[in-house]
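Q: Here's a chain of 119 amino acids. Please give me its 3D structure as tokens.
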Amino acid sequence: NDAEPFNVVTFSLIDDAGGRFVVDPVSGELNTTVALDRENRSSYVIVIGASDSVFFVNKSVIVMLLDINDNPPVYRGNLSYSFLEESPIELILDFTDADDPLSNNSVISYSVLDSRFNV
């Protein structure tokens, strides 16, 4: 422990990832300035500086974003189909979403609400 005034550490951001992050100079608490979207970018590297007015150090920090299920499924096929009456119907539905394909957030389940049809 250093004696005053050298026992007070001041924090700063050397690289704030294009203004996306801020740091409290007294507490060192890191916050975002904008909402971060995992589907646009999964990680950021920022550089935080700390100084006791004599010494100064920089540290790179990797901020990894975890995927959440924030994108609804999107149907990529036709919205209207015509079939001959009394003919068997086979319909292939094509849904997708923008969530991380390697997570459970991209799993899409199907159900039919009309009891005359089944999946």
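Q: Can you summarize the key feature?
A: The chain has a mean pLDDT of 87.
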